[in-house]
Amino acid sequence: MEFEKRKVTVIMGIYNCQDTLEEAIDSLLAQTYSDWNLIMCDDGSKDDTVTVAKKIAEKLPGRVLILQNKQNKGLNYTLNRCLKHVNGEYTARMDADDVSLPERFQKEVEFLDTHKEYDFVSTPMILYDESGDWGCDWGKERPDKMDLMKSRPFCHAACMIRTNAFLDVKGYTVDKRLLRVEDLHLWMKLYAKNHYGYNIQEPLYKMRDDRNAYSRRKFKYRINESYIKILTIKAFHFSWIYIVYALRPIIVGLLPAFLYDKLHKWSLKEEETL
Q: Would you give the distance in Å from CA 212 to the centre of its chain?
């Protein structure tokens, strides 16, 4: 059956997520906004993820397209494969182990429809694990270029982007130095071409996240984040005094795990009060 054209196309990389994928898709089916289709690309799963995805597609004829990588290629490559098949005016992200709250798409579409000065929108994410909700990752309402240096200004999995802006920056850059920081590089490319983003000040997405995961983050990914910050300094001709922001991920990675956990949880509480 032909892949139907819809206003919003959701792109999702799937990998070893047989136990969570159905819940993620159920949250899309529960959206108050229904004019969407879905592209899933499997990145070499070793479990029954593809089988689960195909069963979902059978229940939604014409609305779901499934792609498969022959081997594990990483999220950047996988999402770019999805982008080649997007037919919606807006492209929404979604991860296979997360949940979109019912009004997410409706509010993001309404924002982009009425605010032509912005080319993408995101929302805060509620963080949860098997024990329940444990935090919320908020973002500044109107991040500027300097915020690309200071923080992760947008929640990647919760974003919706004008497809023409996505294509204008040629999607994601495939580079091993961008693993786990593909979102930071994407924001940099978008802002460099005057495609600006906005954060709706209401959590509309839930991210499944082990509350101790930050302290276990691999050091090489912290190095990748520092690399992106250096690229940002160069791209926007910032003073090299801001190198301190580039070094911050590495310095944080050297902190004892218990101390970083406390600092991270404290920062989440501070964001909630802003």
A: 20
CA distances from 165 to 32, 190, 216 (A): 25, 7, 34
Q: How many C-beta atoms lie closer than 10 Å to residue 48's C-beta?
A: 15
CA distances from 102 to 14, 67, 125, 128, 211 (A): 21, 26, 14, 17, 24
CATH topology of domain 8-210: Spore Coat Polysaccharide Biosynthesis Protein SpsA; Chain A (3.90.550)
- From the list 177, 178, 175, 176, the residue with the least C-alpha distance to 156 is 178
Strands (E), 63-124: 64-68, 90-93, 99-100, 120-122
Give the global pTM: 0.92
Look-up: residue for tokens 């940002």? 232
What average pLDDT does the segment 20-38 reach?
A: 98
Give the model confidence (pLDDT) of 92-133 as tens digits. Answer: 999 999 999 999 999 999 999 999 999 999 999 999 998 899
Residue owning tokens 């690399």 = 227
Residue 212 above 60 pLDDT? Answer: yes
For residue 128, the cross-strand partners are 133, 208
Whether the Cβ atoms of residue 128 and residue 207 lie closer than 8 Å to each other: yes
Residue 211, both tokens: 């509350």
| HSE toward the beta carbon, residue 50, CA cutoff 13 A | 12
Which are the contacts of 32, defined by CB distance < 8 A and separation ≥ 6?
Answer: 102, 103, 105, 106
Q: Edge to edge, what strands does the sheet with 120-122 contain?
A: 64-68, 36-42, 8-14, 90-93, 160-162, 120-122, 197-199
